[in-house]
Specification:
Layout (H helix, E strand, L loop, with lengths): L1 H28 L5 H42 L7 H36 L1 H37 L4 H9 L1 H34 L12 H38 L3 H6 L4 H27 L10 H30 L7 E2 L2 E2 L1 H23 L4 H8 L5 H14 L2 H18 L7 H19 L2 H24 L3 H54 L9 E3 L4 E8 L2 E8 L2 H4 L5 H5 L8 E2 L5 E6 L2 E6 L4 E2 L1 E2 L5 H7 L7 H42 L2 H4 L7 H14 L1 H56 L9 H37 L1 H7 L8
Length: 827
């Protein structure tokens, strides 16, 4: 049965990749357009290839350094599994590969979308959307393929237990997160530097249309759409997809490692763990099949409005979502261990958790659509503010973005509570069922991302349509083609904003699951610490290793077993033991605990340690719950270490945004100066007697993006380790909560502000308030320029920062447990 389930999941992953290949070949066989259209597409393709080649070269250097550091932690400090460095590399490789495939498809599809739009609006939509589906299906296919292969290798080749398998697999998410951050930050800086230069000088100063071939930055602008919005988004959601699956699998195995919970499900521990591990993977597999079916349902009629186009996309997404909801019921009944009190009419409660994730994703997408689409009042009213100049539209956009935060925050808050309660039978205060509730939160994130194959297609479709419009403009095609590509592009702006909202929502739920998984890594860190000390301690004698960590070695059949125990802070501070306890100096290594302080006894084959005089039994590491660990580290708001981490996490999101926005500003400055120089030194550009130099702006953006992406990325990588070393596990928990809550709100604000500014400009360009060239249009272009780094650089990158900090914390948990100042007794 186990092999059958694994094989079905693997088959779904291969089906996704096969279908992606079919769509890719269909796109290549479609009409690439005339010679000029192919030439323009070739310029964009060469620029995107040159950028990604350079970016991957720099990222490779970073990966070599991080691989060496992880190897040091694994093989020298023995603070984590020896498989972690290799899992890290494969995660980064597949993330980068997904982005590269998406970029190759998008650059080949732009001229073909323009050629399709010459025939009909539906033909253009089909080419663009199915090319976007290549990105969506590649992400889910590669993600699930990587996970299934790693599971088979670790479980069946090297015979690791399920806890070690899931904890090790979770670490490859760090590789995906690192690659995603580099792709998002670097691509975002590239695309927005080019966009700002093209808009400010071309539209505002020279008064030429968007994507006019006379604009030297027009090719760089189109290249940026591919490296930022396609390759960057693909890497981002690959990381979310894998992170949610791996975190949920780890939480499921951890939850059913409790004999109490397994008994409540009437299963033995290994069987319950396996089913809980594979339920999210099976759900993802079903989502792949249903996403493919949904893609085939997307079509529209000629003369469609944006509402008609949105309905066409919605038809495919709604079908996939509804069928995944049905699949969730069937898969939960088949695979989920049926825990007493958490089953409703023969259906396990996690099915409701999955519904909750699906509903949350749908609601956030709809709210984002309402907040940013020019079909609705908020964006139309924002466009009205352009009549009084750039200042008022900027103020209005910032206010609209801030106001838009409330709905997604409430949706995520309610979804978290419902998913938690549904999974564990609404036992919010029962420590034995707490981990099952966290599993419900994790699987809600999986539910939200289960239809990623089609939802990412709607997102990747946007920049393809945008490039198609640019191709049509620069190729001098008939006006009706530009009208059709503009309709597709306007829809693309909304679907991109919806995709960003979807990515932010999934990041929040994934980060919550990773927060719980972090505590499980802390447990593994303690166990590994104890095992590494086996050779320096005597058997049948308790040793104090840190402030509250005690180990005890037994020998059975010449096999050594090290048992770890926790002494909670309240027990250690008791006036009857505190003085003697503090005299046990562990700064030079484990110190023996006198028998008059700790007594050992074995009952029913289980070792128990009791603190003499307190009648308190020490807490075994292997049965400690998440609540036990938070009590051990005093992870509450009265702990200054937790508060310190909380403030640093909140601060890090603002510093990160500042770094990325300043980077865009500096890169855009160079771009503006270059475009102005070309117009000044080549006056014939405007009358067509001279050709602009397209290569120089591409080179400027490429160099700027490579250097500017380094510091924000280092911030995300280094902060959890530094805070962990200084403030311990409690400080890291505070850091992750601060980053999650502040980053979530800030990301929604920035994405929605930028999307609203962009569509307000499009609304005016469609004829409102005087149309193109009017003073209102110029004010809207300034607002859109301000919003560019909001929605395409800083905002989307925050999703990855949130998850990257969580992933780095998970990978570094063993180091923090053992080598933080708290563990060393310094602070």
């Amino acid at each position: 049965m186990q092999v059958l389930i694994w094989f079905l999941v693997l088959l779904a992953a291969l089906a996704a990749l096969a279908q992606a290949y079919v769509f890719f070949m269909q796109m290549l066989r479609s009409d690439p357009g005339n010679e000029r259209m192919q030439e323009i597409a070739g310029f964009v393709r060469e620029g995107a290839n040159a950028y990604l080649t350079q970016q991957y070269r720099i990222v490779a250097y970073f990966f070599i350094v991080i691989f060496a550091l992880l190897s040091l932690l694994s093989y020298v400090f023995q603070a984590q599994s020896v498989w972690v460095p290799f899992a890290f590399v494969t995660g980064g490789f597949f993330s980068g590969l997904a982005g590269w495939i998406g970029m190759k498809t998008a650059t080949a599809a732009s001229s073909r979308t323009s050629a399709g739009a010459r025939i009909s609006l539906n033909q253009g939509l089909q080419v663009a959307f199915r090319s976007g589906a290549v990105m969506g299906l590649t992400v889910v296919g590669l993600g699930l393929l990587d996970i299934t292969i790693w599971f088979a290798v670790l479980r069946w080749v090297f015979q690791l237990n399920l806890v070690d398998v899931t904890v090790t697999m979770l670490c490859f998410g760090m590789g995906a997160s690192c690659q995603a951050l580099f792709a998002r930050v670097g691509g975002g800086i590239f695309t927005k530097a080019a966009d700002v230069g093209a808009d400010l000088v071309g539209k505002v100063e020279q008064g030429i249309p968007e994507d006019d071939p006379r604009n030297p930055a027009s090719i760089a602008d189109n290249v940026g759409d591919n490296v930022g919005d396609v390759a960057g988004m693909g890497a981002d959601l690959y990381e979310s997809y894998c992170g949610s699956l791996l975190a949920t699998a780890a939480l499921g195995v951890a939850a059913f490692s409790s004999p109490t919970l397994a008994a409540a499900a009437h299963l033995d521990v290994p069987t319950a763990q396996f089913y809980a591990l594979f339920l999210p993977l099976a759900l993802a597999a079903a989502g792949i099949v249903l996403s493919i079916a949904g893609v085939y349902m997307v079509r529209t009629e000629e003369g469609a409005t944006q509402k008609n186009l949105l309905a066409a996309l919605g038809r495919g997404i709604n079908f996939s979502t509804g069928m995944v909801a049905l699949a969730a019921i069937l898969l939960s009944m088949w695979l989920m261990p049926k825990v007493d009190g958490a089953v409703y009419w023969y259906v396990p409660g996690v099915a409701l958790s999955i519904f909750t994730g699906l509903a949350a994703g749908w609601l956030i997408g709809k709210w984002t659509e309402y907040s940013t689409s020019d079909e609705f009042e908020p964006t139309k009213k924002l466009a009205d503010q352009a009549l009084t100049g750039p200042a008022t539209i900027i103020i209005g956009g910032i206010a609209d973005g801030m106001m838009s935060v409330w709905a997604p925050v409430l949706v995520i808050a309610v979804a978290t509570l419902v998913a938690f309660g549904a999974a564990n039978g609404w036992r919010f205060s029962d420590p034995d069922y707490f981990s099952l509730g966290l599993y419900g939160v994790g699987i809600a994130a999986v539910g939200m991302l289960s239809t990623l194959g089609i939802t990412l297609a709607t997102d990747a479709y946007g920049p393809i349509a945008d490039n198609a419009g640019g191709n049509a403009e620069m190729s001098g095609l008939e006006a009706i083609v530009r009208e059709r590509t503009d309709a597709l592009d306007s829809l693309g702006n909304t679907t991109a904003a919806t995709g960003k909202g979807f990515a932010i929502g999934s990041a929040a739920l994934t980060a919550l699951a990773l927060l719980a998984a972090y505590v499980e890594e802390v447990r593994i860190g303690f166990e590994r610490w104890g095992d590494n000390l086996a050779h320096v301690i005597d058997s049948d004698q308790p040793y104090r290793v840190s402030s509250g960590f005690i180990i005890y070695k037994t020998v059975e059949d010449e096999q050594e077993h090290v048992h770890g125990f926790l002494s909670l802070p309240g027990d250690r501070r008791d006036k009857r033991v505190v003085e003697a306890w503090d005299k046990l100096d562990f700064s030079r290594g484990p110190v023996k605990i006198p028998v008059d302080m700790i007594q050992a006894e074995t009952t029913d084959g289980h070792l128990h340690l009791n603190m003499v005089g307190r009648d308190i039994e020490l807490l075994p590491i292997h049965t400690a719950t998440l609540i036990d660990f938070t009590n051990y580290y005093e992870a509450n708001l009265m702990n200054p270490k937790v508060l310190g981490g909380l403030f640093v996490g909140a601060m890090a999101t603002f510093v990160f945004c500042a770094l990325t926005m300043k980077a865009v500003g500096r890169a855009a400055k160079g771009m503006v100066e270059e475009v102005r120089r070309q117009f000044r030194e080549k006056p014939g550009i405007m009358d067509g007697s001279e050709l602009p130099d397209y290569a120089s702006p591409v080179e400027i953006s490429t160099k700027a993006a490579q250097w500017e992406m380094v510091l924000p990325s280092v911030l995300g990588l280094a902060t959890p380790i530094v805070i962990g070393f200084l403030l311990g596990v409690g400080g890291v928990l505070g850091l992750l909560v601060g980053t999650l809550t502040t980053g979530f709100c800030l990301a929604i604000f920035m994405a929605n502000s930028g999307g609203a500014w962009d569509n307000a400009k499009k609304y005016i360009e469609a004829g409102a308030h005087g149309g193109k060239g009017s003073d209102a249009h110029k004010a809207a272009v300034v607002g859109d320029t301000v919003g560019d780094p909001f929605k395409d650089t800083s905002g989307p990158s925050l999703n990855i920062l949130i998850k990257l900090m969580s992933m780095v914390s998970v990978v570094g948990a063993g180091f923090v447990v053992r080598y933080s100042l708290l563990a060393l007794g310094v602070f």
